[in-house]
Amino acid sequence: MSSLPGQEATAGDGDAARVVTVGQMKAGAAAQAAAQRDALAAEAEPGAFPYKLIATDLDGTLLRGDETISPRTRAALEAACGLGAAHIVVTGRAVPWTRHILDDLGYEGIAVCGQGAQVYHAGEHRLLTSVTLDRQLAGLALAKLEAEVGPLALAASRDGVDGEVLVGPGYRVQEGPLPVVEFEDSADLWAAPLNKLYIQHPGLSDDALADVARRVAGDLVGVTMAGTGIVELLPLGLSKATGLSLAARRLGAKAKDTIAFGDMPNDVPMFGWAAHSVAMANAHDELKAVADEVTASNEDDGIALVLERLLGVAGA
């Protein structure tokens, strides 16, 4: 693996993995998805699906608010994969915050995690590639940013399949089951390799904080906004597009073979890389502005609507 300039990097080996979408579902949901999949497959001509790779974000895109995939969306993905496409998850979440979802879905192939920093083999529970943040540059970026806007609340994602998410004083963690480790001493923040830093400001909006961070420290680190209260500092030059391009190469696919779905500004680079991009109805305006089309929300089977149309059986 080749790392980006000025970054720390680790790598594992492994051949291209088979990507599957069949999950461990309750019997009723499984039967419903199977019936819908069979109906789609019966009406679609073999080889008719126009893309080799279907890249989907997780939160706000593939997943509903309860972190499940609807039977209709699952059926559409399976039908497309039955015609030769591959489905790949591309998420801002680092592996430790993604692994349980992939396991619950029965997803056994490659996933891109950590805003592109990690290419993860879900079936084997191991990292294939990982890019880490240059901690000296990140510390300098934080110092410049705090000199501009005042003290920030901080959190960080440590590298590795079992990397901890550290949360400092005042950082607002979203409710849910995702594990975090609190820290008080700032030295703990820099004690081990990191994939990214999370920053929050008591007065600035997420968009405003991201704009200031790009202006003040954009020559040192990458800056993205991945959701409400989630502004991140990344290795410079890293994005979902970086990780997706690495994963696509393993799967024998190229940008021209890819359709991508997303909902937040951190999906903008992925949209720029893929041949066709689809924003959800609930997406951030910045992403909608660069999308090729806008579909229904994650709660209303937005992905399924597009895939069904491409399968030639919209409304089935």
TL;DR?
This protein has helices at about 25-45, 70-80, 95-105, 135-150, 185-190, 205-215, 240-250, 270-275, 285-290, 300-310; strands at about 10, 55, 85-90, 110-115, 120, 125-130, 155-160, 165, 180, 195-200, 220-225, 230-235, 260, 275-280, 295.
What does this structure look like?
With about 325 residues, this protein is an alpha/beta fold. It is built from ten helices and 15 strands. It has helices at about 25-45, 70-80, 95-105, 135-150, 185-190, 205-215, 240-250, 270-275, 285-290, 300-310; strands at about 10, 55, 85-90, 110-115, 120, 125-130, 155-160, 165, 180, 195-200, 220-225, 230-235, 260, 275-280, 295. Strands 1-6-5-4-3-2-13-14-15 form a nine-stranded mixed β-sheet, with helices on both faces. The chain has a six-stranded mixed β-sheet with strand order 9-8-7-10-12-11, covered by helices on one side. α4 (about 135-150) packs across α6 (about 205-215). It is globular and about 55 Å long. The relative contact order is 0.18.
